[in-house]
Amino acid sequence: MNFRSTIARVIRSEPNGESLGKQRSKAPAVSRPRYVAGGVGVVALVAGVIAYAVLSRSQARTADTPSLNAASATVAPQLRVEGNQLVSASGQVVVLHGVDHSGTEFMCAQDRGIFDGPDSTASIQVMKSYGINAVRVPLNEACWNGDSYINPAYRGAIYRHAIATYVHRLNASGMVV
Fold it and tell me: Among 7, 69, 115, 174, fewest CB within 10 Å belongs to which?
């Protein structure tokens, strides 16, 4: 189809896009599924699973990353999706109340450290006292990979270990990441 025939077809069309003289049948309306507020929790859960897989794979393949004690089991709930809800291993419905621990995605690149704010066990207990049971920990690819323009004190194995340790402490406190 060339430009001229396209323009001619547009000129002969009605404002709704249908050609003059031709009746087109409209397709039946398709109902779209309704999403529930729990969908945000599912996204957070998937992000946590991906982060865990990345952390595990990175530690397995990187010899210079200190590993966490394998004997210390986490107590973060093991979640699954049933219908439109998150449920624990025992079948109880779980509602995620989460926060974003911002800073880990930019502090290292700005040569200001790894965390923007406290990352201690005491700060985790404060979060728990407010009913928080999910934490988003954003990552920085350059810091994770140890790119040369990042300060050596905040890149590579040091950054990965700091993130893995924090995630481990969150999980040990019963929070999902």
Answer: 69
Q: What angle separates helix 157-172 from helix 38-61, to the nearest 10 degrees?
A: 130
Tell me the H-state helices in the chain: 3-11, 38-61, 121-129, 141-145, 157-172
Q: Is 82 exposed, middle or buried (0-12, 13-18, 19+ CB in 10 A)?
A: exposed
pLDDT tens by residue, 111-161: 999 999 899 999 999 999 999 999 999 999 999 999 999 999 999 999 999
**Other C-beta atoms lying within 10 Å of the C-beta of residue 58:** 16
3-class DSSP assignment, residue 13: strand
Distance CA 68, CA 64 (A): 13
Q: How many CB atoms lie within 10 A of CB 135?
A: 22
